[in-house]
Write the structure tokens for this entry.
Amino acid sequence: MKIPMPNAVNGHLLNRAVLVLNANYSPMMICTAKRAICMQILNKVDILANYKEKVSSPSIKINLPSVIKVRDFIRYDNLSVDLNRKNIISRDGGVCQYCGSIALPLTIDHVLPKGRGGQDSWDNLVAACKPCNQKKGYRTPEEAGMHLKRKPKRPNRLHYFYKYVNNQQQEWRPYLFMEPFKIN
Ligand SMILES: [Zn+2]
């Protein structure tokens, strides 16, 4: 099946971020407007909110979607975040959790060192600058006299969506539980 996509004139609009909700309205992911429109044309999603702009081609004119909901429930652990270097640094705001430095490159520190039974887990891994990581070495923060800025824990995916919300994405806020729905 050939999908009559709006043309490249609308290229920048087609890259606009779209919030994708599961069939039960839980926030699931962010995709491009281009992908959202494809799913819309294939009748796989319902449109819950649009941006003000429209995209058009000779054969089709479509409101630029902002929030969409899939029609068939997708089994998906929607609030889990993969444990990896990038996501640990993102959770920690790109800041060394010992001294607050943003000196790059940040390393990943095992709070309880791995060789002493420390796990690869959200509550035992933190972003640390190289000097802090070296200073701490094979010790716990207490032994090294270093203090964590905050207790590390598993992040919630909602934080990831919050980062996207800006003036263009006011429509997203109720769906991310950032404010109540307005009842007309
Ligand atoms: Zn540091």
Remarks:
- Residues 89 and 127 are 5 Å apart (CA to CA).
- The chain has two domains: 8-77+157-176, 85-144.
- Helices lie at 11-14, 33-41, 85-91, 130-136, 141-144, 157-162.
- The longest strand covers residues 45-57.
